[in-house]
């Protein structure tokens, strides 16, 4: 199996550093070939990669001792503890009041929290970030949506009755309620359109507030 482009783990980098210390006269090209053989790589790391590993030896070795980094040296810790805590508190409040949570609702609330924070960190609130946040807090909305969908479908299916009886009784009533149904459908479409417009306006307002906050922070640091 090809290992081209494969990243070295923290442990592997530490072995490269140890090899360099054992044989300090070895140049980067030779050390690159040693790394290829030692870890059975398809291609050797570049000289620049080896140089970066050697020059960052102290940082790499510190990461190996840290329990908060992954095998590749990434830090999975939250970027903003304040955002994490406030969003968690919001989730708990929603649960206490039986408010149904959605990914969109969490993302919107997270943006509101960031907008209110002083010196808020740069954060794009990506789909990946939200997925990791949900995983950290044991949130999964998929099952709830499916259950609601099934319940809605079940409610829409009428009970098994004699079709002749249903036609005789329901048809006149249905004809009488058709105008009302059309009116309700039109109102629903208008409400849906207005909701979309409000969401667009809110998004633009948040962008405007972020620009104002950025300008205010820049003025304070002059």
Report on the structure:
Keywords: Coiled coil, DNA-binding. One of its GO terms (molecular function) is DNA binding. InterPro entries: Homeodomain-like_sf, HTH_CenpB_DNA-bd_dom. The structure is a single chain. With about 220 residues, the chain is mainly alpha-helical. Among the domains are: about 10-65; about 80-135, Arc Repressor Mutant, subunit A, CATH 1.10.10; about 185-220. The chain is built from 9 helices and no strands. The protein has helices spanning about 10-20, 30-40, 45-55, 55-65, 80-95, 105-115, 125-135, 140-155, 165-220. α1 (about 10-20) crosses α4 (about 55-65) and α2 (about 30-40) packs across α3. The longest helix has about 60 residues, at about 165-220. It starts with 9 loop residues before the first helix and ends with a helix.
Q: What's the CATH first level of one domain?
A: Mainly Alpha
Number of helices: 9
Written as H for each helix and E for each strand, in order along the chain, the element string is: HHHHHHHHH
- Mean residue pLDDT: 76
Quantity of strands, as a count: 0
Globally, the shape reads: elongated
* Named CATH architecture of one domain: Orthogonal Bundle
Please give the radius of gyration in angstroms.
Answer: 29 Å
Main sheet makeup: none
Q: What structural class do the secondary elements suggest? A: mainly alpha
β content, as a range? under 5%
Helix content estimate: 55-70%
Distance linking N and C termini: 55 Å
CATH topology of one domain: Arc Repressor Mutant, subunit A
InterPro entries: Homeodomain-like_sf, HTH_CenpB_DNA-bd_dom
Keywords: Coiled coil, DNA-binding
Protein name: HTH CENPB-type domain-containing protein
Pfam family, one: HTH_Tnp_Tc5
């Amino acid at each position: 199996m090809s290992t081209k482009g494969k990243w070295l783990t923290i442990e592997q980098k530490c072995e490269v550093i140890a090899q360099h210390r054992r044989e300090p006269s070895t140049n980067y090209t030779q050390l690159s070939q040693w790394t290829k053989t030692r870890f059975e790589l398809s291609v050797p790391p570049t000289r620049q990669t080896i140089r970066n590993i050697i020059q960052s030896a102290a940082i790499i070795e510190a990461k190996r001792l840290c329990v908060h980094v992954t095998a590749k040296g990434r830090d999975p810790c939250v970027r903003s503890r304040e955002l994490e805590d406030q969003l968690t508190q919001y989730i708990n409040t929603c649960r206490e009041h039986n408010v149904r949570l959605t990914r969109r609702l969490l993302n919107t609330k997270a943006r509101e929290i960031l907008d209110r924070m002083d010196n808020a960190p740069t954060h794009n609130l990506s789909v990946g970030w939200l997925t990791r946040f949900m995983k950290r807090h044991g949130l999964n909305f998929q099952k709830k949506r499916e259950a609601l969908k099934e319940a809605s479908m079940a409610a829409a299916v009428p009970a098994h009755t004699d079709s002749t009886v249903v036609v005789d009784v329901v048809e006149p009533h249905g004809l009488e309620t058709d105008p009302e149904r059309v009116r309700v459908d039109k109102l629903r479409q208008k409400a849906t359109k207005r909701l979309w417009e409000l969401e667009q306006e809110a998004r633009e307002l948040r962008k405007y507030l972020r620009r104002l906050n950025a300008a205010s922070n820049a003025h304070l640091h002059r």
